[in-house]
Amino acid sequence: MTNEFPFEISPMFEGERVRKDDMYVELAGPKSKGFELVRSVDPDESINPVDDGKFTLIGPDIADMEEGGRYPLAMIYRISGELVEGDLESIVERRNHDFQNYIQGVMHLNQRYDIWLRISKEAVNKGLDTLEHIARATMMLFKSELPFIENIEAIYITDMAEVEKELDDAFAIYEARDERTRDLHDEDVDTFYGCTLCQSFAPTNVCVITPDRVALCGAINWFDGRAAAKVDPEGPQFPIEKGEVIDEFSGEYSGVNEKAKSLSSGEYERIKLHSFFEYPHTSCGCFEVVGFYIPEVDGIGWIDRDFLGNAPNGLPFSTMAGQTGGGKQVAGFLGVGISYFRSPKFIQADGGWDRVVWMPKHLKDKVRDSIPEDIVDKLPTEEEATDINSLESFLKDKNHPIIERWESEEEEGEGEVEDTSGMTQTQSPATGYQYQQNAGLVPPSQMNAPQPSYNNSSSGVKISFKNAKISIDKLIIRKKE
Amino acid sequence: MTRVIAITGKGGTGKTAITTLLIKYLQNSNNTTLAVDADPDTNLPETLGSEDERTVGDVREFMLNERDNLPPDSNKESILESKLFEVINEMSGYDLLVMGRPEGPGCYCYINNLLRGILDRLIENYDLAILDTAAGLEHFSRKLIHDIDDLIVVTDGSRRGLRTAERIRDLVDELETKVSNVYVIANKVNESNKETLEKTAKELGLELIGTVPQDEEIAEMDLTGSPLFEISDNSAAFNEMKKIAARLKI
What we know:
A: alpha/beta; 4-stranded mixed sheet; 17 strands; elongated; B: alpha/beta; 8-stranded mixed sheet
């Protein structure tokens, strides 16, 4: 079948680079213009249906091009079929890159409006003198590899004015597609992806990448995971079947839990994807931002790698990152990728943005658009709060939603736990840190939660701390037999 | 199969000069050659006479900075590959790729993982890849480029220089990178130390494949700031390089 073309077609030509010295012509690329676009057409379209196998060229063909020259190129494919729908356009479009690279002597790079092609002198000498050969070979591959495409036609444009004219429409189509893609959430898919790139230094790390949760390093989103797992199923990124939904709100799934167990060699059995306190995601060491619980205000602060100062708790990123990293599940600390702040499910199990009480200014500016309007001005940075006292008073002044928690805690706890801020402040930062690790990691709300029941029963306990300094090596509480 | 030749040595020994002479020799050979400047100091473009300043480091930073602005479902490997091809400087008779600045803070696991695959495939396009690399062999320990056929250690004419060569040879054994042959080229050699050098190399079990003489033309070019690549074809240094290339069978 491939005999009809003056070139060989095989995946072995992928990665073939056409060097400048060997190049007959360059199409599109960083120094010219162009794009590739797939449009789905309704099979019942009567005015302009897909004319299967048709090739149209607007502008000069290879034979008319000057050797060593550079020309723009737009490649538009119109497809139709019973199963063809708009959502498939981008998936089909991306295969153009693969298929054209199968052609010996053709180099195709990048995608969308960044495409860059070169055709080798050797290929032209062997008879590749018209773009029609390339278009027909590509269309043939589209139909054989993606059988849901019943009809396909190609329109190639090499005339600059025509390319520019079409480019605006193409931009609008890409934009609309991205809009739809961003609207994909955890509940819309059956498969998440995992990544083990960090396991070399964080052996128990379980990185779960979902539409609403980017990898901790920020580099891999759900689509990247999907693409990588498909290309190299044995590679560092692989699919995780969601399995049963245990709790959608906090993000707990049976499939994720199973994978957590096997990836951490039994260290962790449960992971809640959108939880900060209970079975949080493990933290590798690559994370861009670390979240830390601030017991004095019962809120969560965030500090990123680029912020060199101390957070209101007196600690810099490096110290907290050291505490968090290594692939551990650490209640009270959580490593995340910056894009997780843009997730609609951002730590929703623990109150989402209402629970966030501090972040560095440049980080806040970066994610400003994703911060709910009623919080954005109430969220202090290093400019407003540098220690616990200034943090507390800023939150109070601005009536940050965290205040409501303080009020409800006071009701619940009847003021039994008092002046916790005094506890840390009387200590050096180092011991204060110890305190946070051991006792402070459990938020007061959870510490207090069982209290009412104790108070109501006749044999209950009542504990009051005032300006206490406590250090405990080990504490065992057992039910009385 | 591409033959990968890495040239290393302490700063100041003239490894970039040796690399330049080798590439000059290869420019007119039948081999397709990729020259890679893997030394963060980035001196090779200057001695080759390239004014292109773009590096793989720039591409890495671009990917890190632009990451969240790219279409969410874009194929990052394909974008990275294209960006990498953009920074290949297509010189006459060979291509030049500059690795550039070392990584900043932040996580490069994912990008480096993609880069590994792309560089592997890129190198396969050439008959020869010539790497000018720092003595620490950083890019090899990160496995960005693996499997070296010939590692050439450049030393100056001193005994201490040969000791360094010995240390680098031993370091190679600790790398996960496969290195088939280790050779030594002594640079800035004069008649008085040539014999002793050859003797010491033998004692240390180092395979000395060339002694490049101190060449006044090189010193002069250095002073006037003209690229070493333009050294005359019959200069003493370039003549020695022709012999070295023959010994390396290239």
